[in-house]
Amino acid sequence: MASQxxxxxxxxxxxxMKRSYTDVPVEGEAISxxxxxxxxxSLSKLFDxxxxxxxxxxKQDITGNIKKIRDRQLASPGDSGTLQSLVRSELATxxxxxxxxxxxxxxxxxFTAQAIRHNVTxxxxxxxxxxxxxxxxxxxxxxxxxxxxxxSAAMSATPYRKxxxxxxxxxxxxxxxQLEAWLAALERILVILKAFTASKEAKW
Length: 204
What we know:
By secondary structure, the protein is an all-alpha fold. It has helices at residues 33-44, 46-50, 56-75, 83-91, 97-121, 127-137, 148-156, 161-167, 172-197; strands at residues 26-27, 30-31. A hairpin with a 2-residue loop joins strand 1 (26-27) and strand 2 (30-31).
């Protein structure tokens, strides 16, 4: 796994992001593809902060599905300005590689968002508790018996809560303010994506 980028001074993990979910354009319910994928790549680096190779499958799941969506965007840029238009245009060709990638990416992002939200809300819980609770309601119902142990290993490899938040930056007030803004923006996007990926127009 790639090593975590070292932080200097008052910089936080969120300062190092190429794109935050707070900067992903959403018009109505149309989500801009390019910025969304960049924010997803930035989110994937959060698993480097967690610091264990056990999180490789989680990170690879996210980056692999981002690639499927970007490949479709590059193949048909005129139809891929938003995630919704990308899906509709791909399904019209009787293919669903990127559409399925978006479904799995949505599940992985939901897993991450629920885990972080649980830990922010329940400050006495360790990360392992938060990630296990999130996994049970997001990814686990869709995973095979082969994949489940890999993700379970990751849940057990989470650092202590205190250590994790310290790795996000020295200024803890700044860290928590940025984390809340980033998380709230991700949650708003997930409400849209979960409804869209469950709709008839996103089915293949």
